[in-house]
Design a protein that fits this description.
mainly alpha, Fumarase C, Chain B, domain 1, Fumarase C, Chain A, domain 2, Ribonucleotide Reductase Protein R1, domain 1, two-stranded antiparallel ribbon
Amino acid sequence: MSYRWEEDFLGALPIPAEAYYGIHTMRAVQNFLVSGFKVPAELIQALAQVKQACALANERANLLAPEIAKAIVQAAAEVAEGKLGDQFVTDAFQGGAGTSTNMNMNEVLANRASEILGGKKGDYHLVHPLDHVNLSQSTNDVYPTALKIAAIRLFLALSEAIAQLQGALQEKEAAFAHLLKLGRTEMQDAVPVTLGQEFSAFAEAIARDRWRLFKVEERLRQVNLGGTAVGTGLNAPREYIYAAIEELQNITGLGIARAENTVDATQNTDVFVEVSGLVKAAATNLAKIAGDLRLLSAGPRGGLAEITLPQRQAGSSIMPGKVNPVIPEMVTQVAFQVMCLDQAIALAAASGQLELNAFLPLIAFNILTTLRLLINAVNILRTHCVEGIQANEERCRHWLEESLCLTTALAPYIGYEEAANLYKKAAATKKTIWEVATENGLFKAEELAAIFSPAELTRPGIAGARKLKHKIKKKE
């Protein structure tokens, strides 16, 4: 491999001749050999668009020659489209509040723009990484601005994925609306519900997440672009600042706005804690739903088995025929990971000092990783699991009859104590509540049919009261 030499105020380093990055990037690579995780592609592409907007704004403010601005804009557009992705080589966990990522971008764009103008990599006379690409900017305003853009896009994608999952759950709610089954509280037999009602609760929880996530764009749209180092805007002319925001709106198609207080927007990152909390709430609901799907499908013969999940893969290397609920298990793991990343985001946000938060790279990596994880997990849960769920009606009927839970519906007619005696007798004789209640002469078969009607058992009020109001036991 051939090399070129570049210098900074710390000395000189060899750089691969064909690399678009330069010495500042190389120092970061050497300093942060820590995780192997790269800066998220979504952040790189958003930062390229910020650089594109800044170049156009600098040209409009007569700070940058048109031919240089045009070359930087073209280079930035290429990166935003996903090109030169292998040139962004810094570790995701880096000191300096994102300076290494910004320097990496500046050098890649400068070298690519120099190529466009007929120059060579490493010759910064035509386009300089700092004097031209980074003109009127600081890491401290372009990096958090790019992070908000990247986050907004992923939040919109997650909101759409959540909406589709909600729709799939609502379809199952309708399909299972007729199917009466045993409800359970604290893992013990409770009172009847329909399988459709259980899925309606899943859908409603996801609907709340959809609404929360849909509103996130409003929380992230205010950026500190133009604030430069500490939010005061030093070295950024007003004409440039307003032009940069306008150009960024046009490039991204997002409702980006300049923060009213850019000093605050530069040093405080609580907005990421807020939106991460909303993502954690969604992860919590997903973990609950995934756990319930595992329970309801447990078996297929030795467990509840009230529903059947789509079979995705062999479940054991030793037990032939075994199939595991791998999709809900994956979703649960993702949900736990999201919860943990949320804690790291909160700690990083709380650890900023004075005019800047040095730990923004951790916030960036975790919030974007969180969103990407959930988007993928939600889409897989819908397509590989929920859409293919089938109800086992016979099994639902079996557990309902075996449980003696129907005793509760008789209490308003015969009182709690007598109902408890019925329950005890049914349990001792291994008979159903229906059988014991008719044998004791407490109810006729047609009366029990009215009380134990699925519609009566799963809506407010005393089951069968409209037909058997005269039998309801008066409280004395």
